[in-house]
């Protein structure tokens, strides 16, 4: 289902920096009527408001605190586009001393956080005519790497849930987009030691274009496109194909 962001009311989690900040700016540039900048600390969104103006409305939201998500869904009752961008990177391999601690943290934000956001906002989107739900996954959701394999596991799980949302939310007229970036020039990429990264704007602009095209998958940057090309036939034949269970 095609979705045009022009004139829409959107909410973006993790909106104060990196990909989230770029998404907010792209939505504003493409004519969104209002963008809720969902952040853990309202002060962190002040520079974004300064750049974009009153069209951006900061709202408190922490993916590890369900009460803030539920409160945000009540405050942002006019949204018809939700982009769940917030995520964490713990960087542990299976034999690291802190592997269980890192995995628990990443699952709580990257997987359970997605579930909390989807469960809170799906009824809002339905009430407002369907709208769209976008989940930031990763290329590592389809190919794990030994370094940071706990992050890969959390993103593989979130991608699996995103597929389920794609099927379930179709019934209420909500289009779902699964975004799979490779290395992007953000603080998270720096922490992971990734170089030669594309700017966050390629993800933001890709989201706007993919929503308009009615796509389910987006592989926005140069590394991600290589994954997407190799994965395309499987995605079309298995992931995106109607199946009876």
TrEMBL record:
Annotated keywords: Oxidoreductase
EC numbers: 1.1.1.311
Pfam families per the UniProt record, alphabetical: adh_short (PF00106)
Keyword set includes DNA-binding: no
InterPro entries: NAD(P)-bd_dom_sf, Sc_DH/Rdtase_CS, SDR_fam
EC class of the enzyme, as a word: oxidoreductase
Gene Ontology molecular function: 1-phenylethanol dehydrogenase activity
The UniProt record lists the keyword Disulfide bond: no
Protein family per UniProt: Belongs to the short-chain dehydrogenases/reductases (SDR) family.
PANTHER family in the record: 5-KETO-D-GLUCONATE 5-REDUCTASE, ALCOHOL DEHYDROGENASE, PUTATIVE (AFU_ORTHOLOGUE AFUA_3G03445)-RELATED
NCBIfam families xrefs: PRK08264.1-6 (NF006120)
Name of the protein in its database record: (S)-1-Phenylethanol dehydrogenase
Species in which this protein is naturally found: Botrimarina mediterranea
